User: Fold this.
Amino acid sequence: MEKPKVKAGVAGVGSIGQNHARIYSELDTADLVAIYDTDIARAEEIAGKYGGQPTQSLDEFASMVDAASVAVPTIYHREVGSTLLNADCDILVEKPIADSIDDAKALIDLAQQKEKILQVGHIERFNPVMSQLEARLDSPKFIESHRLSPFPQRSLDIGVVLDLMIHDLEIILHLVDDKVESIDAVGIPVLTKREDIANARIRFENGCVANITASRISPERMRKIRVFQSDAYLSLDYQDQGGWIYRKDGMSIDREEVEIERDEPLKLELASFIDCAALGESPKVTGHHGAAALDIALSITKLIEDSW
Assistant:
């Protein structure tokens, strides 16, 4: 007997949320039943394109779905997420989980109280590149990441650290799995009142150092990470989903191409979320993971702003 599909919906169908709606409409395990946006015309447009019913209120939306993506602006994550959790919905909250640690903890506590899933949308954890990192690394010593993009005309309520760098911060915390000892950071506002380009250097208690650069004013797009450990150096490209591993062989270095089975990370992320909702399993990126990445991102942002 075929298993029933999870009734899914998207709250907030801007540039990110519309892609959630597209993928839910394509998943065999999900039934896109509802769309919510404060712009009713926008909700109707996306529903007409991908299916589901455009709803007039968040309460109406919550009454129709079992699992939902929260892709509203960050400042509304707690409000919208709490409404859905209180209506017994499993939720996937786009990153960052919230705009403050207090709001993040409130969502985590409520999800635990309601025994519902709270997944955070750190999409790179579902990039096929990640499985190669996890399989080959056991003791990273130095990590360098670059995440650059042209000016996005979105997410301007937050700076580049919370917009882009937080992806790499969550990945690095996952790979190193140790306490942060110190942070140095610099950032510059260019087109907005918040930092549009930033660099952070993080030292962990085990000695690992991570150097992270993020920019949303670059003429090119780049999403790359290089990880060094005692026996190897891995260079991977999140964007192209390819890379190389370098190993020492006597007095020379051998280079081997990393074979990666390419796929759309957002599709993998949402499919995993729907599976967790159907089975009641813990997600790969929990509220606690999202809060840890937010905590360090806020620390970096404060260091930057204090320097102005």
The radius of gyration is 20 Å. The chain has nine helices and 14 strands. The chain has a mean pLDDT of 95. The chain has two domains: 6-116, 124-263+296-306.
